[in-house]
Amino acid sequence: MQVVVIGGGPAGLMAAIEAGKENDVLVLEKEETYGKKLKITGKGRCNITSSLPISEFISNIPGNGTFLYSAFKNFTNEDMIKFLKEEGVEVKEERGNRIFPASDKSDDVLQALLRKCKKEQVILKTNKKVIEILSKDDTVIGLKVEDTITKKQEIINSKKIILATGGKSYSATGSTGDGYILAKKLGHTIVKIMPSLVPLECYEKNLCRQTQGLSLKNVKIEFVKQGIKKPIYEDFGEMVFTHFRCVRANYFKWFCSFTKSI
Ligand SMILES: Cc1cc2nc3c(=O)[nH]c(=O)nc-3n(C[C@H](O)[C@H](O)[C@H](O)COP(=O)(O)OP(=O)(O)OC[C@H]3O[C@@H](n4cnc5c(N)ncnc54)[C@H](O)[C@@H]3O)c2cc1C
Question: Which residue ranges form the domains of the chain, and what is each CATH number?
Fold first, then answer.
């Protein structure tokens, strides 16, 4: 096989479509279906992209967003919208420049990716877990794959492998962090991974009880550290309060004030 893609999430399927224009491509997905995580994005609606210009897009990325410039130069948010339209998925824009499928169904995005894969004659296989990337003399030569049902193992020869195994959150969707292990075994350096989008837990019991179930839109959040005048972080968006409470006292030292609810 000329190119093998490990992982049938949005990154793997998109990579397969692109590679499929000039190569024979095989996608190996360890779950029984593709894009499990994609299906739960945006509460099942999939916030596909933003309509903001690329420069603003990048300035909204936490950390060092500038490294994404070269990727966005080749494929922009507008290209993504065009790609979906060509595959029959209409989109709509909502508050905050957010783009969603007009149908409000994340599955439409997944089906568009799968349709395009088929058009490019990409071979798609589920229940195939890659357990090792094989190399010889510092060159990739193939993969060891296990069938998750029969447990049978096989070797697939390929000199070009695209690792698209996702991160390590929501492991029930298949993103269990295999890619870090596979890459490390090949000699790559893996930076310490950490969560990016997390809930805030607070230790005030009554606040949780009184607010649980409350869902707010257009909320500005500010993190203020006692003794420092300027907020150390601020953001704007949606907020939902749940019953979670942190049992470790003093764990959550910051306090937040919801200053502007429009
Ligand atoms: C609750 C939630 C809501 C989100 N909402 C949005 C949103 O609205 N908009 C947005 O842009 N992003 C959203 N995201 C983020 C988005 O889901 C991810 O950025 C995206 O899914 C990453 O795509 P990926 O293809 O890199 O990885 P994944 O989607 O994680 O796909 C990786 C695939 O690789 C497979 N795999 C892993 N290991 C192996 C192996 N060893 N062998 C074979 N296959 C393997 C997995 O089973 C999985 O199918 C959300 C995430 C979550 C958790």
Answer: 3-185 (3.50.50.60), 205-261 (no CATH)
